[in-house]
Amino acid sequence: MTTIIIPAHNEGPVIGRLLQQLVPGASTEKVIVVANGCTDNTAEVAASFGPRVQVLSISVASKHAALAAGGQAATEPPCIYVDADVELRAQDVQALVAALHQPGILAAAPELVLDQTGAPWSVRWYYDVWARLPEVRRGLFGRGVIAVTQQGQERVAGLPPLLGDDLAASLSFAPHERCIVPDARAIVHVPRTFPDLLRRRVRVAVGGAQMQRLTQIPGRAARTRVSDLVTIVRSEPRVAPRVAFFLSVAVLARLRASRAVARGDFTTWLRDESSRRGTATGTTAAGRSPGGGQQAGCP
Question: Under a CB-based contact definition with an 8 Å cutoff, are residues 107 and 178 in contact?
Fold first, then answer.
């Protein structure tokens, strides 16, 4: 029995889209939705999918607390942590579980597909470069989905509350312990406005600074290097203007993040709301552009 844990804070507009794809084929999966600090109809939407979805409600708005509550309710491994605003199918779950049976693999994530429907050129330019970065292509973060074995779950459960929770989880596994599964896909909806993109990047920058202060996260200093951007330009000169724009956004995000770091504010969750507004319950068929890659992929 695979346990799918979905932390959800005010995800009423999008959680139905995810469950609509997961539940019909979830014959061997237990789906747990942890509605944390919700003031909308997240719990009601999740409960409408019937007994195959277990809904837990906690009063505090905390992804870390939600993951912990979901982990306690999980009866047996493996576990798959899924963000409520992504899209994942039952067959993707099966591919992830199969990958965890490979010798030495403790954690797995799907290939990344970016849905840029309705996004302005500034957001598209940013993600065009971001999806090419080596750390993005081989890491488990940024996909909204991480599958773990029992040993992997224990490692993730031991992490402290962090803004960059998915990056911390990825860095908790050595490259030979994790893999990207080419037969699984996670659709991630990018921000539909530049201000929302910037908010998301500021949060990531604050989360990175937070991890720099910790010693229990291996490889916590891993980040994009200028040499990575130079390599992208050399291999694809046409994207040079986009690389320059990407770099300017990264610098601006770090400047804004420095204010929060100076205040010691590592709890404010700057969420992108634009990708959640006006969302239909069905899947999005247009505007998908692949990101990530098969590097460090499972056999």
Answer: yes
